[in-house]
Amino acid sequence: MYKNITISDFYQASLEGKLAIIDVREAYEFDYGHVPGAVNLPLSEFEGYEKLLSKDTPYHIICQAGVRSVQACKFLDAQGYDVTNVMEGTGAWPGELV
Question: Is residue 4 exposed (0-12), middle (13-18) or buried (19+ Cβ within 10 Å)?
């Protein structure tokens, strides 16, 4: 079962160390502003992306508000990946988006 993390705990964790962050929003949303260090893998094109990921790496999955990230977490969790859903999403990010 995938895990959940609040945006404030995620923000603190991002300040403390390098996290593997996957932003599942569409490319135009990602380009508008994203969490520093995030990689864009849009949910609409998600099938097949799991082949690019390592099952040895814990991933934090984020979207705008936490809905698409849940869908991505369910999919990746079923494939055996270590994933954590970032609740509240990029829209609640307390830091600066890049």
Answer: middle
How many other C-beta atoms can be found within 10 angstroms of the C-beta atom of residue 19? 17
State the catalytic residue, choosing from 7, 35, 63, 76.
63
Tell me the backbone φ, ψ of residue 81, rounded to 5 degrees.
-90, 150
pLDDT digits (tens, 9 = 90+) for 19-75: 999 999 999 999 999 999 999 999 998 888 878 899 999 999 999 999 999 999 999
- Check if 73 is active-site: no
Instruction: Tell me the two tokens of residue 66.
Output: 């936490």
Rounded distance between C-alpha atoms, residue 13 and residue 61, angstroms = 14
Q: Name the token pair of 28.
A: 């135009």
